[in-house]
Amino acid sequence: MFKGKVPDFLQPGLNNILKTSIILLVLACLIMPTSALADITGRAVTVINSWEEEDKTANSSVSEYFDLRSRGRLGQYRLEIEASGRVTGIQNEFDLNDDELNRLYSLALSLSDGEMNKSLTLGRQTVSPLTGPLLLDGASFYLTTGPFTLNTRWGFLANVTGGEPDNDRAFGIGFNYLIRSGMYLSMDYGRTFSDGSLLTELLAADWSYSWYRFTKAYFTINYDLMSRTLHELLLGTRLFFSDRLSAGFQYSQNTFQFDSDSIYSVFAIDPVQESSFSLLFTPVRDVRYLLEYAREHFSEGAGGRRYTIGARWTPGNSRLNGDLTQHKGFGGKMTEISLGASAPVLPSLSLGIGGDFTNTENGGENNVTSYAAFLGSDWTLSTRSRLAVRLERSDDEILANPTWAGRLSFSLEL
Question: In which region does residue 331 sit, left (phi positive, over 0), alpha (psi from -120 to 50) or beta (all else)?
C-alpha cells in the first residue's frame, strides 16, 4: 500500500510566511469578480514508475505534477495566479530519513500594468538574478522605463519539501540596460542573512553584444564580497561565419562558495578553470555536427582534457543522434557514448530506442563499464493529451545484477 503523505505545504509545521501567502491568495480569489480570472490554463501530468532495487526487490511510485495559471484583468491591471508542485506516493520507503516526496514549487499572485512595464509578484516564486537563482516566499518587483529595467526581491528562502524552515532571508536589487541595439549591460547585488548575521553577499555583472549573423560576445562576473574572492567568471564569443558554420570560444573560472556560518568557509578553496573551443557545422537544415575540445585546470597543476563529437539528423518528424565524449587527465580516463533514434509509425504514435555506454579507467584500479538501454513510445491521444511509455535496462560491473525500470506518463493540457 502506498505511503504517500498529505502535502507538506498543508501541514501545521510550515513557515508562517508561506501560510499567510496561501491565505491571501485564496482570499484574493474569493473577493475578486468572476470575470477577473476568466482565463484558466495549466497542465497535469500523472507518472507511474516501477523499478528494481539493488537487492532485486520491486518498488513503484505514483506522482501527480501540476502547473496551473489563472489570468485575467482587474480594472486596468493584468492579474495572474500561478501554482505548481508535485504530490507523490511510494510503495516501499527504505530510508525513513529521506526528504519528503511532495513539493510546492510556486504559489504566487502577479499584478502588472497593461503594457507590462511594472510588475509585482507575491508568494512562493523562483527568481533568477545574476547572483544566482533563489526559491523565495516573498515579493519581487520590476519597473521598466525606456532602455532601463530595475528589479528587486525580498523574502524567506523557501524549503521546497515543506520541512521546518531556517528563516534565512534574502534581499537583492539589480538592473538591465540596453546600451545600443544588440548590446546589454546588467548588474545585480544580492545577500542572504539569518537572525541578523550575514550569510552571503555577492555582486555580479553581465555584458553581451550580438551583431552580424547572430555573432555574440559575452562577459559575466560574480564576486563574493564577504570572502573577497571571484566566485564565477565567464567570457566568450560565438562567431557565425555563415548560416552553416559557427565557432565558439569560452573561458570560465568557478570557486565554490560557502555560507559564512559553514565550517568550510574558513578553508581556502582553489578555483576550477576551463577553456573550450567548439565548431558547429550545419551542411543542410536537418543535419548538424558538433566538435568540442575543452581543457580543465585544477589545483596544484592537476587538470584534464575533454573531447566531444556529436551529430544530429532530423528528417521530417524522425530523429537520429549520437555523441562521443572522452575525458582524460586527473583521476584517469572516461569514455561515454550515447545513441538515440525516434520515428513516427502512425500519425499519432512514435517509437524511440537508445542507450548510453560508459567506460571508466582509474589508475591502479579495475576498469568499470556500465550501460543503459531503453525502448519507448509517445502517443498523442488528442490535441490536449499525451501518453508516454518507457522501459529501461541498466547494468554495470558494481551491481550484482542488471536492473529494470518502467515509466508511464499521462499529460493533460487544461
Answer: left
